[in-house]
Amino acid sequence: MTVAVLRLAGVTKTFRAPRGGGDVVALSGVDLDVREGEFLTVVGPSGCGKSTMLSLVAGFAQPTAGEVLFQGQPVLEPGPERGVMFQDYALFPWRTVMGNIEFGPYALGVGKAERRGRARELIQLVGLEGFEDRYPHELSGGMRQRCALARMLANNPTMWLMDEPLAAVDLQTRIILQDELLRLWGDGGSAKRSTVLFVTHGIDEAVLLADRVVVMARRPGRIKAIVDVNLPRPRAAQRSSPALAELVGRVWDLIRDEAVRAIAEETN
Amino acid sequence: MSSALRRVATAAQPMIGIAALIAAWQAASVIAANPTLAPPLGAIARQIAAMASTDLLNDVVASLVHLLLGYGCGAILGLVLALLAARSEWFAAILDPYVEFLRPISAIAWIPIAILLFGVGRGVPVFLIFYASLFPILVSTLDGVRSVDRGLINAGRALGASRRLVVTNIILPAALPSILSGARLSLGVAWVAMVAGELVGADAGLGWRIMWYQEFFSMDGVMATIVVIGAVGWLLDALLRALQRRLLAWSPTTGARG
Ligand SMILES: Nc1ncnc2c1ncn2[C@@H]1O[C@H](COP(=O)(O)OP(=O)(O)OP(=O)(O)O)[C@@H](O)[C@H]1O
Ligand SMILES: [Mg+2]
Asked: What is the CATH number of the domain that holds B198?
């Protein structure tokens, strides 16, 4: 019996509405157990609390009620064992690619030679050789994404928290980055995989990557269903498998009503 | 257009404005035909040359000493107060009414009190420069620090940065564009305050030299000094701008490589 590396128990998060009015319930009574080494993807309509859930796990905010336990301990603040990749990358604009990637080890007091070496390895891993001295604004969207990925990996986090990491690139780049991400995670069957919480709007992507897909509903934000994806790995070979298409259909059926309602509310 | 040609054209742009001004002045002096009111260019140029071989260097140095003392203290204090206010809510609450009350008051309004306090000498211009340069950098730095992207701070914390590291490696660099543009604004008003203070409350400096020439009814001398004040002020701003470009090479808007 494996213990949950991450446990959300009755997690509720409300935000005070900025201009009076009622409070916004971003998450309501969310229970979730994540096993070690599991790849979990999270889908759901806009505003259902996906980013909120991630930021609670990261430790950027505290739940209003319930608890978030990481390795059995309540999450009180961010920590380097939980790496975060932000949707807008949040790269430090005043640091070069190299400077961004080595910031984590630098913050943890790793010596210069060692962190340089580690950063070089990662730069090679994500294919950014030759761009070490570029500033983020001098990179393409896909390159920024790789840089953010390498920065997250530099501390060897045991948990990867990724908020729509591939949303802002074109389809070809996204497919390539999906494959790379899987490879880095150890899709080919490496012994020690990190635990991944991966928020996405792409249902195909969610199913392709995941061991389980968490489908969320909104108002209030809660987990509607969890779909097991029992497809063999490596997944790159499964892109056109009928079993994958069927699962995509199932997830889509689960969120269609929510999505339709979300659009109706937004246009009213 | 070839790139070399374009570079020459870009360098020539400010010259066009200067050339137009010179031509207009020369035309005015010819039309006015009154060398006391509008001395011709030749006279001003001769005057500058004459000053250069006598007191000009002393005057410039005296002014720069005033500036260094007043601006140095004012800009540093402004920066420190802003950083403290950004750190502590209650310090900000105490500071804010003083800043909002004092900031709109022109430094020049303090001249009588400054003369009373310090007497004619170095104290008056230094105080006025200090007063004038305090607020722009303070307000601008505070704005910059307060508007640092929360996401960058979170990114740093998730990468293991301590609170101190977040301040030195994230908040300060993120606020640097605001700090530097505040420093430039401060320098601009400091230069104005310096001339005002020296005009009436000092015994040396370029502003003082204007009054000195006025007593001899030498408009050539007054105009020549004004030209020098403009040129040195421009030079100082150019220095800060170069510093800005150097320090903000990473910024997509100010970066030299961008
Ligand atoms: N700091 C905040 N202050 C007030 N309300 C907030 C805050 N953060 C999130 N919310 C609200 O909480 C709800 C959930 O937001 P969240 O960003 O978690 O949604 P999401 O699922 O990530 O949406 P998207 O898919 O559009 O990114 C929204 O209604 C949002 O307006
Ligand atoms: Mg979101």
From this structure: 1.10.3720.10
> What residues does each domain of chain A span?
4-81+159-267, 86-156
Is any Cβ of chain A less than 8 angstroms from the Cβ of B162? yes
- Compute φ and ψ for B156, nearest 5 degrees: -65, -45
Q: Do B154 and A95 touch (CB under 8 A)?
A: no
Which chain A residue has its CA at the smallest distance from B174's CA?
A94
Report pLDDT digits (tens) over B33-91.
887 777 888 888 888 888 888 888 999 999 999 999 999 999 999 999 999 999 899 99
pTM of the model: 0.84
In a domain? residue B20: no
Q: Per-residue b/e over B223-238, b at no fewer than 16 CB within 10 Å?
A: bbbeebbeebbeebee
Query: Do the chains contact at A93 and B176, CB–CB below 8 Å?
Result: no
Q: Is B84 on the interface with A (CB under 8 A)?
A: no
CATH code, residues A4-81+159-267: 3.40.50.300
* Domain membership flag for residue B25: no
Q: Which atom of ligand 1 is nearest to the CA of A216?
A: 21
Parallel, antiparallel or unpaired: strands A222-228 and A195-199: unpaired
What's the sign of the alpha-carbon dihedral A208, A210, A213, A218? Answer: negative
